[in-house]
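Objective 1b. Sequence-to-structure analysis of Holliday junction branch migration complex subunit RuvB.
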Amino acid sequence: MTWDETGEAVTDRLVAASADGEDRAVEAALRPKDLGEFIGQERVREQLDLVLRAARARGGTADHVLLSGAPGLGKTTLSMIIAAEMGAPIRITSGPAIQHAGDLAAILSSLTEGEVLFLDEIHRMSRPAEEMLYMAMEDFRVDVIVGKGPGATAIPLELPPFTLVGATTRAGLLPPPLRDRFGFTGHMEFYAPAELERVIHRSAGLLDVDIEPDGAAEIAGRSRGTPRIANRLLRRVRDYAQVKADGLITKEIAARALDVYEVDLRGLDRLDRAVLDALLRLFGGGPVGLSTLAVAVGEERETVEEVAEPFLVREGLLARTPRGRVATLAAWAHLGLVPPRHNDAGGSQQGLFGP
């Protein structure tokens, strides 16, 4: 696994939830412009609509907003919608890019009244900058330290009212003092297949792609509940349909295209299946340590833990136990294998696999 300039994991997996340069360019064209166009997340949209309408009625800035959830669910899109709904400009940065309090002070001091500051991966911001943010969010003021040692002086700097929109994939890492300063917190849920079908139809229209309802359903079922992945799979299926067919995406064309790209019916790709295959065939379903499992599939430990495992656990195909990783009955069924009653280490798996 490689890393970009902000410290984010970068992979070449078709079902990766993180965005690369191509995804960001396409997302800009496909991104909804207001809450009415935004598909899914009904509860968050309804609550956020009330917050923004009340702020507009008061003629003031909106409360600070915290959005949490897995990558690719629309946190950045919602931040841009917040700015559009409030008729305000937006400034975009990320937690890893703010390593010093001075970095944050420079950004805050250049904000205009009512501007929206979108801070992605806010949980990865440095502690000094985080402490400066407390006062900025609550009092719209920061203290800039001039000098060092006993002669250092704190110069208060007044800030215009602004709205901070923080996004995080790991809300549990945010310290309570920071979480408490957000007036609204919304948790982004994974999408249902029907919602993803609506996303795919909308994107297909914007991309001028002909797609049948069963073709959209086929793509949605393999998109891991994530709009970003759905849009990426749609583009790859579009390529296949243009080269191998007449350009129309049907269920059969979508299935054949995704088979070429090694994305199976549940959205697992080569890495996911390699992890399950090693766990089942080499270690009898586990338990097995993470490092051993990583060596067996020829990947780094971090890649298996952070890239493959979260989806496998969410799908109920793998379990993390104190003794190691263990496959579930669903994993055996997915690969068409028969689970043993006891694992190779001699431990009974009846608790996880049934009698």
